[in-house]
Amino acid sequence: MNNTTAAARTDAVLPKWNFAQFASELTEPAPLTSARKAAWKRYSELPFPTRKVEEWRYTDISTIDFELLTPAIRTEEIDEELPADVREILSQSGDRAGVVVYQDGCVVHVELDQVLADAGVILCSLAQAAENHPELLQQALFETRPSTAEEKLWTLHLAILSGGYLLHVPPGVELPAPIHTFNTLKTPGLLTSTHSLIMMEKSARAAVIEEFISEDLDEQTVSLHGASVHCKDSAGIEYVTVQQYGRGVAHFSTQHTVAHHNAKSITFNVGLGADLSRADVTSRLLGPGSDSEMLALWFGDAQQHFDHHTLQHHKAPHAHSDLLFKGALTDKASSVFRGLIQVDVGAQLTDAYQTNRNLLLSEGSHATALPNLEIEADDVRCSHGATIGQVDNTQLFYLMSRGLTQRQAERLLVFGFFDEVLGRLPMAGVRERIRGAIEEKIGL
Amino acid sequence: MSGFVTVAKLNDLPENDLKGLIVDGVAIVLINRDGVIYALEDSCSHEEFPLSAGDLVGCEITCSLHGARFDIETGVPRALPAVLPVRTFEVQVEGDDIKVNLTEAA
Amino acid sequence: MPQNETIKELGLDEYKYDFVTDDKPVFRAVPGLSEEIVRQISAHKEEPEWMLEFRLKAYEIYESKPMPEWGGDLSTLEATLDNIYFYLKPQDQMERSWDDVPQEIKDTFDKLGIPEAERKALAGVGAQYESEMVYHSLKEQWEEQGVIFDSIEDGLRNHPDLFKQYFATVIPQADNKFSALNSAVWSGGSFVYIPKGVKVEIPLQAYFRVNSERMGQFERTLIIVDEGADAHYVEGCTAPVYTTESFHSGVIEIIVKKGGNFRYTTIQNWSNNMYNLVTQRAMVHEDAKMEWLDGNLGSKLTMKYPSCYLVGEGAHGEILSIAYAGDGQHQDTGGKVVHAAPHTTSQITSKSISRGEGRASYRGLCKVYDGALDAKSNVECDALLLDETSRTDTYPYIEIDENTASIGHEATVSKVGDEQIFYLMSRGLDEAEAMAMIVRGFIEPVAKELPLEYAIELNRLIELEMEGSVG
Question: Is residue A174 part of a domain?
């Protein structure tokens, strides 16, 4: 059934907008436009994934008519002033090295600490990056090869890219505070596409926290998001996303992290908002000694659906990766975790771990876990574990005996359940910001 | 919506045949077994495949996707891989009209 | 059933009874599959009309289902299927001579100390292992208890109502492409009924059933364990089974009724040209217990996931699986548990070893339906890699719709530690012995559950394998 809907939609040639016209309205360097066109061509050849595709088996997107949405057209109206609502949030979230603000998928504000700018750090919109460093965009963004299952939405993401930023940290430079970005949606019915391109040169260090925010929107709205994070030798990155969209929004995020010799990457995805939220997180360990930590937590209520796909790809020997994804669900919320540890031939002395834990708080909630391993080297230590269950009754009764209501006790235990993940984030300021967001969502 | 609604004509449902239709957003399968009409939810409890694509054998309907079988009167599964029953609906035949009560499971 | 029937009346002498009568249709084996072959099989077995219809429907389903795109590499299977014989009379099966059996298989029999008569049976060149006397006294004892242990053909012939009531209710034709194929062309296998409250102490072994077609390519087994009954069934053997055929697709259906207790042990060691695609599934009712003990040592590719459908309150399912994937082998095995009733519990334990260019994959399902209150399931997978060219995969599916369920899955992958080997060698073992000892320790939790003679054979087999693996 899903199949026929999707097939019909694929055949439709953009009833509401067509790509040629979309592309003609863009004012950007020609190579970027032709890269978009190539992506569009590929997109047009591919069918939308249906539930018959293994990677989409538990997530039905046939109800979203992507091509009936209004694509956000990139505008380049950079405002010198921080928008008031963002200023409000920032005033509560500690130090920062730089800020990027999007509205409806377009960059409206970029600022970077002058000291860092003087040290050679680049933080600019992708449009500016396309002017000044077209080859960088070509290599680091448009040449990324997504998996077959991701390719449809990835090519759409590239073709209609509405905004994005480049962070480039030169060798040896360490950012003293995080770069903070805000992706705010205001117009219902939009299709936005934003991208974060992060280039860490040798021994550079940085932390990035990205927030995705909107009110509840009364029309189907879709946010496509991509991140490409490149860590050269001995570089370090903490890349955090906090998704707090309102209802009515579907969010699709595809994140690729590459770590070279002795580089360390941490990705952390926090899922709290949207009706449907899918994250494909890939970490490639290309150099010996590289290290990848992949963290996530989500809390679903009402009929929210969270879908997480992860790949820990060990291409080099002597690398380490550790994944911890935890989710709690209530009402009729559902979640999927599908993770793969892939160890290539020759990637000896790999240490790779993967853990997924799920709490089901209500009768109507359901969770699916698919922790996979594909190991083609023998001198490895790999393990995975998955659990699905309820909060511990003994603890619950204990807290209730101390005067808490069942709901309060339960939420407190959920908070404790998440704290194991939060505790693994090095930057205290980022941790606090996430704690606040969770508290707001679960209503402690 | 309450009570019985006319969903099909008896003439359109030959003996020992079945037919899938959607009434008020509910997919149902109508079955004529030796002149007696049965109505079930048109969705296998195993993987939600429409039962109307399957076969009627005796008093059982077989899902064509994986072969699960259900009693057409009670909706109870008679063969794996289905383990849960499918909903059944009350049916009345008045003249040539087949009426089904969609408000509650029979 | 009367107690004093002769062997012949019991159908033990099925060979003469079944196939040498002149009035049977002449059956000419041709390679490949067609509706005509399906009709001939049914006619030759003098089946009731409903079974012919069942087979024809299955054939139609088989033709319409695509080849699976997951699991092992089935890209050359289609061509293989065009060339195999879908039905051979037992006489034809035995036409092969001992001289045709490859030397390496004979050597393995030697090393394992398999008796002469049994070797021929295992190699498919002679009648079954001559155990009539043992079998006869056992069978008498069982029959006194009302136990039915027949070939599947006799089950259909002699117990038509019981047979029809349960046949294909656990694994329908359309379940998957290979259950459809088996349903179309099945031949051989066992029909077992354990009456209410009966406990069968000695394992029922397909081994003992004289002249059975147990090594059939498309065997079909139906086992009904009635309320409160208790039995253990053993199929297959650890010694390598040589056959020139390259495809085996069995269907094993088991029903364990309220309070029943059943264990099914199967060890397969098909030769390395074999595609082994088997569907085995049990329906487990209230307070009943089902255990699968599944060992996969041979074949080119095995795809086999024993399943427990826990449909009654308090039902319990256990799957213990060991897989050994040597050079060129792919063992794609595992287990499935489906919790569809409250207070159901299950445990899956999987141990796999990959050696050389072998690949061992665990593929499993744990499904808990809404309403299966307090369901508990635990899955543990351990994979051992012996060489840098070996591969292991783990693909569990965990689908939970019930919030009171408690589900755990754990898997680890490791190699045999050099320190372990050095330590054992420092104690006087050579490298092969050390390796064999470590591997034995690794599979011990499963091996200790095996009947003694199987466990002993398995140990010898590991030693043989390890001799070839190092030095």
Answer: yes
* Under 8 Å between Cβ of A167 and A133: no
- Give the separation between CA A381 and CA A156, rounded to whole angstroms: 38
CA A207 – CA C316 distance, rounded (Å): 50
Run of H or E including C193: strand C190-194
The interface predicted TM-score of the complex, written ipTM, equals 0.89
To probe the interface with A, which of C394, C406, C435, C438 has the most A CB atoms within 10 Å? C394
Q: Which two tokens stand for residue A69?
A: 């949405």
First CA to last CA distance, chain C: 58
Same domain, A265 and A411: no
Largest Cα–Cα separation, chain C: 71
Residues A65 and A182 in one domain: yes
Q: What does the alpha-carbon distance between residue C254 and residue C308 come to, in Å, rounded to a whole number?
A: 9
| Per-residue pLDDT of chain B in tens (106 residues, 90 and over written 9) | 458 899 899 888 999 999 999 988 889 999 999 989 999 999 999 999 999 999 998 899 999 999 999 999 999 999 999 999 999 999 999 989 999 998 864 4
The answer for residues whose C-beta is within 8 angstroms of residue B17's C-beta and 6 or more apart is B31, B32, B56
Rounded CA gap, C208 and C190, in Å? 11
Residues 266-285 of C with CB under 8 A from B: 281, 283
Task: Identify the three-state secondary structure at position C171.
Answer: coil
Packing angle, helices A393-401 and A406-422, rounded to 10:
120
What 3 state SS string does A11-48 have? HCCCCCCCHHHHHHCCCCCHHHHHHHHHHHHHHHHCCC
CA distance C334 to A408: 41
DSSP strands (E only) in C386-427? 391-400, 406-415
Cα–Cα distance for residue pair C40/C29, rounded to 1 Å: 10
User: From chain A, which residues contact C within 8 Å (Cβ)?
Assistant: 54, 345-346, 348, 358, 360-363, 365-390
- Structural domain of A400: 394-444
Cα dihedral C107, C109, C115, C116, rounded to 10, equals: -50
Amino acid letter, A240: V
Strand C406-415 versus strand A380-389 pairing type: antiparallel
A291-300/A320-329 β-pairing? parallel
Q: Is residue A207 part of a domain?
A: yes
Residue A29 sits in the same domain as residue A145: yes
Task: Report how far Cα C44 is from the mean position of its chain's Cα atoms.
Answer: 26
Q: Rounded CA gap, C323 and C276, in Å?
A: 13
Domain presence at residue A23? yes
pLDDT digits (tens, 9 = 90+) for A166-192: 999 999 999 999 999 999 999 999 999
**Confidence check: pLDDT of A297 > 80:** yes
Identify whether A253 is part of a domain.
yes
| Residue where one domain finishes, among candidates A286, A313, A347 | A286
Cβ-defined contact of B78 to C174 (cutoff 8 Å) = no
| CATH 2.102.10.10 fits domain B13-88 | yes
**B-C contacts at Cβ under 8 angstroms:** 43
Residues of chain C with pLDDT under 70: 1-30, 88-102, 104-106, 108-138, 206-216, 236-245, 453, 468-471
Which residue among A286, A314, A348 closes a domain? Answer: A286
Indicate the number of domains in chain A.
Answer: 2
Instruction: Compute how many other C-beta atoms are within 10 angstroms of the C-beta atom of residue C254.
Output: 27
User: With 50 as the cut, is the pLDDT of residue A4 above it?
Assistant: no
Same domain membership, residue A265 and residue A404: no
Extract the runs of DSSP E, i.e. beta strands, from C305-458.
307-310, 316-325, 330-339, 345-354, 359-368, 376-385, 391-400, 406-415
Q: What is the DSSP letter of A187?
A: S
Facing A378 at nearest CB: one of C388, C393, C402: C388
For B10, which DSSP code? Answer: G
**Residue A370 and residue C385: Cβ atoms within 8 Å?**
no
